[in-house]
Amino acid sequence: MATTVVTSAGIASEAPRGDFGRILAQRERRFAAALLAPAFLALLATTTFPLLFLVYTSAFRMDLAMPFTNGFVGFENYQVLLSDERFWTSLLVSLAYTGSTVALQVIIGLALALLVMDMKRGQGWFRVIAILPVVLSPAVVGMIWRTFMLAPEFGIVDFLAINAGLGSKNWLGDPTLAMVSVIAIHTWQWTPFAFMVLLASLASLPEDIYEAARLDRASAWQRFRRITLPLLRPAIVMVIIMRTMVALTAFAAIFTVTGGGPGTATEILNLYAYRKSFTELSIGYGAALAVALLIVTIIISGILFAMRRAK
C-alpha cells in the first residue's frame, strides 16, 4: 500500500505507508523541538550559564577592594575554604536550620492535615487561612516578625511571654533565641505547603482499607502507623526533598530579621557567601562558598532521592 507524498518541488510521488508515518513523526519532533527551543534557551540563559560562570569565578581571586591582586588561583579558594572556621560554623548552622525547619513542617503539616480531614465543617475556610503565609514574600515575612512579633516589650510574642510570667526576652539579640526565632519564622511560613500536599494525599487514600481495619478492631494509632504513614511515605519524602532544597538556600527572611546575627549565630552558608561577596567584596571566595553550598545541596538531595526510591 502506498501513499501520495507531495515534495517541496510540488511533485507528487508514491511513498510506502511506513515511510509516510516516519516522515510525519520526524515533522512532529521538529515542530515540538521548535516549540520547546525558546523555553530551553531561556532556561540555559537563566540557570545553566550563571551556574557555569559561578564555578568559573570560584577559580579566580577577585577582590574588588584590591584589584591588583586579582588573577587565576585554581583551587586555592577551596583550600582556604576548608580551613575557614567560619565556613564550618555557617555550614553547621545551615544544617541545623534546615533539619529543624523541615522536620517541624512535616510534623505540623501532617497533624493539621489529619485534623482537617476529620472536620465536618469549615474545611474550605481553614485551607484558605492556612495557605496565606506561603503567598507572602520572605522579606515581608521577616519584616513583619521583626517589627510586630519579636520586638522587645512591644512585640506580640514578648507581650504573651510577659503575661505568662516569663518576662521580656531579647528574641533577636540572644544567640539561642535568635536561632529559635528564625526557625519558627521559616516553619510558620512554609508549613502550609506541607499541609496542602499531605492533605491532598490523605484525601486520595482508599477508604475501604480503613473500613477493613475498623472491622478488625484496629485502634486509631494502629491505623495511622500501619496504614496512613506507609501510604503517605512517597508524599512525605517528596515534601522533605522540596523543603530541604529551599531551606538550604534560604536567605531573605534571615537577612531581614537578624542579618545573620547576633554575631554569626544565624549566619547560614548562603548568607556567609553573600557577605563575603558583597560586603567584604571578595567575589572569588564568595563564589567558592556558593559552589560549596551547591555541592552540599546536591549530596543531600541525592540521599533523599535514594530514600524515595528505596522500598
Kindly list the characteristics that best describe this protein:
single chain, two-stranded antiparallel sheet, 12 helices, 72% helix
**What does the main sheet amount to?**
2 strands, antiparallel
Strands ordered across the widest β-sheet: 1-2
Shape from CA axes?
globular
Report, as a whole number of angstroms, the end-to-end distance.
50 Å
Unreliable stretches: 5-13
Order of helices and strands: EEHEEHHHHHHHHHHH
Q: Roughly what percent helix?
A: over 70%
Q: Quickly count the helices.
A: 12
Specify Rg, calculated over alpha carbons. 27 Å
- Broad structural category: mainly alpha
Strand composition percent: under 5%
Mean pLDDT: 86
SS elements, strand count: 4
Structure overview:
With 311 residues, the chain is mainly alpha-helical. Helix content is 72%, strand content 5%. It has twelve helices and four strands; from the N terminus they run ββαββααααααααααα. The chain has helices at 17-57, 76-82, 85-117, 123-135, 138-149, 156-163, 175-203, 207-215, 220-248, 252-257, 269-279, 283-309; strands at residues 2-6, 12-16, 60-61, 71-72. The strands form two sheets. It has a two-stranded antiparallel sheet with strand order 1-2. A hairpin with a 5-residue loop joins strand 1 and strand 2. Helix 3 runs antiparallel to helix 9. The longest helix has 41 residues, at 17-57. It is globular. Residues 5-13 have low confidence and may be disordered. This is ABC transmembrane type-1 domain-containing protein. Keywords: Cell membrane, Membrane, Transmembrane, Transmembrane helix, Transport. InterPro entries: MetI-like (IPR000515), MetI-like_sf (IPR035906). Residues 91-304 form the ABC transmembrane type-1 domain. It is a multi-pass membrane protein.
